[in-house]
Write a structure and sequence with these properties.
The complex is a heterodimer. Chain A is α/β, with parallel strands linked by helices. Chain A has helices at about 15-25, 30-35, 35-45, 50-60, 70-75, 85-90, 110-125, 140-150, 155-160, 175-185, 185-190, 200-210, 215-235; strands at about 100-105, 130-135, 165-170, 195-200, 235-240, 245, 255, 265-275, 290-300, 305-315, 315-320. Chain A is elongated and about 75 Å long. Chain A starts with 14 loop residues before the first helix and ends in a 12-residue tail after the last strand. In chain B, strand 8 (about 250-260) and strand 9 (about 270) form a beta hairpin. The chains are: A alpha/beta, B alpha/beta. Strand 3 of chain A pairs antiparallel with strand 1 of chain B. Chain A: One of its GO terms (molecular function) is four-way junction DNA binding. Chain A: This is DNA repair protein RAD51 4.
Chain lengths: ~325, ~425
C-alpha cells in the first residue's frame, strides 16, 4: 500500500497525471486512496469518473478481500511435519503445522537445536526443502547427515538430500530481515520450502533490546510479523528458538525477548532437562544423556499443558522410556 | 510485510531523508536507479549508490555442507581432546567454567602454546591471543610450557617419517612458539568491549587462530547494573561469534562459578557466573573441577557430542593426560588409585596453591613454604613415576607423558617459588 503510484497500475495514470499528483504531495497508493475523490479532481486533470475507476482498480489490487469460510476449508492442507518422536509430535497434533510460527523455549543445552535438527532431517526425508538461519553457529549439518544415515539412507542419498538444505549464517536482526525478504520475493528460494529455522532469535535480538529508542523491539515485531506472513504465504512452518530468563529476581522463568513477544508465536514448546547427573534407576540407551521434557505452553490448535519426555541420541530425538517411581529421594 | 527502511543500518539523517522523500520500504529504494534516488532523497550519487548496495545485501546461502570440518586446538591431554571431538574447536566459542583452582588459566596457557605447534605435527602453526583480565603471572608459566612443548616436538620430529614434519620440528623452538603468543592485559569492561576491534586489527597482520579471554567474568562482576551488563555481554558474544565463524577462530572464554540458591529452598548448586542470559552465548561449555590431585573436565554443552567427563592433570610441563585407568569418584573423597601419578603445581590459576583457597600474594608466605615442602618432598616420586611411564608417541602430538630431566624438575620448583611471590 506504500508503493509509489505507477503507470502500470492503471493506464489512466499517465506520466503527466503522476507528475501533477506528485506536485500535490500524492505519491503513494495509500495517499491516493485516502483522499476524497473531490479533492483528487482538483489535484490532477482526471475527471470524476476516471478517478473513481482508478480507485476501484487500486482497491482490487491492494486491499485484502474477505473470502468465505468454506473456501478456506477447501484449500488443500499440508501434512504436519513429524520429527520421529511420536510423543513430542503428538503435542502439536501430529507434528509441526504448516503456516504457523512455532517457538522452542528453554534453558541452555536443553536440546532446542537438536529438535530443530530432527525436524530438518524429517523434512528432507519427506522430499521438501529446508532453510536454516543460524545465529549461533551450533546448527550442525554433519549431525543432520548422521540422523539421515541412521534412518537407513546411503551416503550418496544423504548428500543428495542435504543439497535441499540451505544454510545461512546471520549475525544481526537486519540480516535476518534481508534474508526473509529474499525468501518471500524469490520463487526459487521458497518453492518447495517446508521448514524455516531461526536458531536462535534471542541471540540476534538480545544485543539490541536494551538500546534506547526501542529499535530492538521494533525489529523484533517486524521479524515476528514477517515470519508469520512468510509461513502463511509459502505454507511452511517457521521454527524459532528462544531462551528462558528470570522474570524478576527470585521469580519464575519466562521466555526471553520481552512481554510483547509472548503473544507472537502460534505455538510454544517449553523444554526442560532433568537436573540430577547421577545415573537413575532407568535403563537408558547408551549416550542418551539426561531425560528432557517438552511442555506445550501455548497453542492455537492443540490442548495446552500436555508434556512429553524425550532423549537426544545419535539417531536423533527419541522417546524416553516411561518413568518409574523413584524409591529414594534425590539430593 | 515488506522490509521497512528503518531496519537499514544507516545513519539517522539518511533514514530521515528517505522518509521525507516518501520512501517507506526497502524495495522502493532498490527499484529506483542511483540517480533517481539521489535526486529524490537529496543524497550525493556516491551515497545513493553505496546505500543501494548495502540495502541489497543479504546473507549468503550455502547448500548441503556449509564448509569443510573446522580444525581444533589440541590440549595435550588425549582424553580431553577425545571428549571435545579433537580439541577446542575453531569457529566456535568455548566456555571454561571452574571454581578457583580449577585449571582454567592453565588450560588457556596450554592451548595458546599448542596453537603454535607445527601443523605437520598436529598443531596449527598459528598465533594466539591471550587476553588477561585478572593480572595473572603468566609469562614464566608460558616459558616453561613452551620449553616442554619444544622438547616434545624435538622428540617427535626426530622419529617422524615425513621430511616435512622433520623440517617443521627442526624449525620449532620455545622462542618461536612464544613469538606466536600475544598477551593483552585489560582491566575494565570498556576495554574488553573493544576486543573485537583489536582482533580485527590483529587478524590483518598475523595468522591468528585462537583467542583466550581469562576471564570474561572479572571486569563485570559487581560493577554495573545487571541489565546493562547483560546487554554488553550479549553484544560482545555476538561480535566474537561473528569473528569466530567468519575468520575460523577458536574463542575460549573462562568464567567463574557462583552459587545459586533456588528461590523455593533446596540445595545450593554451582552455576556459571554472569547470569542466565550468558549461558546461551557459548557453543560449548566445559566445567573444570579439582578432584584430589587431578582435574576433572565435564562437558555439559556441545552441538554435536554427548556430555561426558575426562580427567587431566596440570604438571610442571603443562596439561597432560592422567596415566592408567581412571574411575570417576562418586563423592569428594580422594581416589587411592591416583597415587604415584605424579604431583604438579595444582595452584594453576595463579590465585594461590591449588587447595581451593583464595590467598593473595601478601599472605602467601606460609603457602609458599608449604608447597616448597611439597615440591621437594615429592621430587623423587615424580621422577620415578614418570620415568616408569614414558610413552612417547612420535606420530601423535598429544603424548601422555614427557620425561622431565632432573634439571627441569628443580626449575619447576624454582618457578613455582617465583610464581607465588
Amino acid at each position: 500500500m506504500h508503493q509509489y503510484l505507477k503507470n502500470k497500475e492503471c493506464p489512466l495514470l499517465s506520466e503527466d497525471v503522476l507528475a501533477e499528483l506528485k506536485n500535490n504531495g500524492i505519491k503513494t497508493v495509500l495517499a491516493f486512496l485516502s483522499r476524497d475523490s473531490e479533492a483528487l479532481i482538483h489535484a490532477c486533470s482526471l475527471t470524476y469518473q476516471e478517478v473513481v475507476s482508478v480507485k476501484k482498480v487500486l482497491f482490487a489490487k491492494y486491499s485484502a478481500l474477505p473470502c468465505s469460510a468454506t473456501d478456506l476449508l477447501d484449500q488443500p492442507s499440508v501434512a504436519p511435519l513429524a520429527s520421529g518422536c511420536d510423543r513430542v509430535d503428538g503435542l502439536l497434533g501430529g507434528g509441526l503445522p504448516a503456516g504457523d510460527l512455532v517457538e522452542l523455549c528453554g534453558p541452555s543445552a536443553v536440546g532446542k537445536t537438536q529438535l530443530c535438527l530432527a525436524w530438518a532431517a524429517a523434512a528432507l526425508l519427506a522430499g521438501a526443502r529446508v532453510l536454516v538461519a543460524d545465529a549461533k553457529c551450533e546448527f550442525s549439518v554433519d549431525r543432520c547427515r548422521r540422523f539421515l544415515r541412521r534412518r537407513g539412507r546411503s551416503a550418496q542419498e544423504c548428500d543428495r538430500l542435504l543439497e535441499r538444505l540451505q544454510y545461512a549464517q546471520v549475525f544481526s536482526m537486519q540480516e535476518l530481515l534481508a534474508l526473509l525478504e529474499a525468501v518471500r520475493s524469490r520463487r526459487r528460494l521458497h518453492a518447495g520450502l517446508r521448514l524455516l529455522v531461526v536458531d536462535s532469535l534471542a541471540a540476534l535480538a538480545a544485543p539490541l533490546l536494551a538500546s534506547p529508542g526501542f529499535i530492538g523491539f521494533g525489529l523484533l515485531t517486524d521479524v515476528g510479523t514477517t515470519l508469520k506472513s512468510v509461513a502463511a504465504e509459502c505454507r511452511l512452518t517457521a521454527l524459532v528458538t528462544n531462551d528462558l530468563v528470570q522474570s524478576e529476581p527470585g521469580g519464575g522463568e519466562r521466555p526471553a525477548l520481552g512481554l510483547a513477544w509472548l503473544h507472537v508465536p502460534h505455538h510454544r514448546l517449553l523444554l526442560s532437562r532433568e537436573t540430577s547427573t547421577a545415573p537413575g534407576p532407568l535403563a537408558q540407551p547408551p549416550r542418551a544423556g539426561p531425560r528432557r521434557t517438552a511442555t506445550l505452553a501455548k497453542s492455537i490448535s492443540a490442548p495446552c499443558g500436555t508434556s512429553a519426555d524425550f532423549l537426544v541420541t545419535d539417531a536423533g530425538v527419541e522417546e524416553a522410556p516411561i518413568a518409574q517411581k523413584r524409591s529414594a529421594p534425590e539430593d | 510485510m515488506a522490509r521497512q527502511i528503518y531496519t537499514l543500518q544507516e545513519p539517522d539523517s539518511t533514514i530521515q531523508k528517505l522518509h521525507r522523500a516518501g520512501l517507506v520500504q526497502v524495495r522502493d529504494v532498490l527499484r529506483l536507479t542511483p540517480d533517481q534516488l539521489a535526486a529524490e532523497a537529496h543524497l550525493s550519487p556516491s551515497e545513493a549508490a553505496g546505500l543501494q548496495q548495502r540495502a541489497g545485501r543479504r546473507p549468503a546461502l550455502t547448500q548441503g555442507r556449509p564448509r569443510p570440518p573446522a580444525g581444533h586446538v589440541v590440549t595435550f591431554s588425549r582424553r580431553l581432546d577425545a571428549l571435545l571431538g579433537g580439541g577446542l574447536p575453531l569457529g566456535r566459542i568455548t566456555e571454561l567454567v571452574a571454581p578457583p583452582g580449577g585449571g582454567k588459566t592453565q588450560l588457556c596457557l596450554q592451548a595458546c602454546v599448542d596453537a603454535a605447534l607445527p601443523a605437520e605435527l598436529g598443531g596449527l602453526s598459528a598465533d594466539s591471543l591471550l587476553v588477561d583480565t585478572e593480572d595473572s603471572p603468566v609469562t614464566e608459566r608460558l616459558h616453561s610450557l613452551a620449553a616442554a612443548a619444544a622438547d616434545h616436538v624435538r622428540c617427535a620430529g626426530s622419529a617422524a617419517a615425513d621430511p616435512a614434519a622433520c623440517r617443521a620440528a627442526a624449525d620449532f623452538s620455545a622462542e618461536s612458539a612464544l613469538r606466536r603468543v600475544h598477551v593483552l592485559r585489560l582491566s575494565s569492561a570498556a576495554e574488553l568491549l573493544l576486543l573485537p576491534a583489536v582482533l580485527t586489527e590483529l587478524l590483518e597482520r598475523r595468522p591468528l587462530r585462537l583467542v583466550c579471554v581469562d576471564s570474561v567474568a572479572a571486569p563485570w562482576r559487581y560493577g554495573e547494573p545487571v541489565p546493562r551488563r547483560a546487554q554488553e555481554l550479549q553484544w560482545l558474544a555476538a561480535q566474537l561469534r561473528r569473528l569466530a565463524a567468519r575468520r575460523g577462530l577458536a574463542v575460549v572464554l573462562t568464567n567463574q562459578a557462583t552459587t545459586h540458591l533456588p528461590a523455593g529452598g533446596g540445595a545450593a548448586c554451582l552455576v556459571p557466573a554472569l547470569g542466565p542470559g550468558w549461558r546461551h552465548c557459548a557453543a560449548l561449555r566445559l566445567w573444570l573441577e579439582p578432584c584430589g590431585d587431578i582435574r576433572l573436565a565435564r562437558l555439559t554443552k556441545h552441538p554435536e557430542r554427548a556430555d561426558g567427563t575426562a580427567p587431566f592433570q596440570v604438571l610442571a610441563v603443562g596439561v597432560r593426560d592422567v596415566c592408567g585407568d581412571f574411575d570417576e569418584p562418586a563423592g569428594q573423597s580422594e581416589d587411592s588409585e591416583q597415587e604415584g601419578e605424579g604431583e604438579g603445581p595444582s595452584g594453576g590459576d595463579g590465585d594461590g596453591p591449588g587447595t581451593g583457597q583464595e590467598e593473595d600474594g601478601a599472605g602467601g608466605a606460609e603457602s609458599e613454604a608449604k608447597s616448597q615442602g611439597e615440591g621437594t618432598g615429592h621430587v623423587e616420586e615424580e621422577g620415578h613415576a614418570v620415568g616408569g611411564h614414558v610413552t612417547e608417541r612420535v606420530s601423535d602430538v598429544t603424548a601422555t607423558d614427557v620425561t622431565p630431566r632432573t634439571g627441569d624438575v628443580s626449575d619447576c620448583t624454582a618457578s613455582k617459588r617465583q610464581r607465588l611471590i
